[in-house]
Amino acid sequence: MTTPNMQRLKLISIFISVLLSHNLFAARALPEFSASYAIEKFDIKLAEAHYRLRYTESGYEFSQDTKPFGIASMFANDTISATSLIDEVGDNLLLTKHNYRQTGREKNKDEDINILWQTYKNMRNGNITGVVRNKKISLKTNSEVWEALSFQIPLMIEADRNIREYPYKAILKG
Question: Are 54 and 60 in contact (CB under 8 A)?
């Protein structure tokens, strides 16, 4: 049996949870989006790239899928799929996972990187592990690191804030 006070308490708790969840997503620096781009050469569309940014419980998921288009698909079957997870920790954005898969002619370009962060006040220590081009990696860092996909997140945020310099450390293949 529910009393009027219990019903009122339920309504208040629902209202507070909706309000808090709205504020959580309202505070995000970037909106969720989905975009498609044509990759052209000599005005001929050779491939399509699809990008998607969505919120996660702890930050952002940014993904890219690229595949040949039209006549190019008859000569190449390469596809690229990449996903990066970026966590918001205080005022910092931290790359926590990156996965890159390429199919087709070029083999062994796959990447699967995990970064476990320990943060305390202004200190950041990251343990980077994973597999890059069939080789295990184990690295340490004391500052934020990015790869080519995730780098675009802080770049978009800072470009929107009219910042003119972008000092970032990157994990790049090659």
Answer: yes
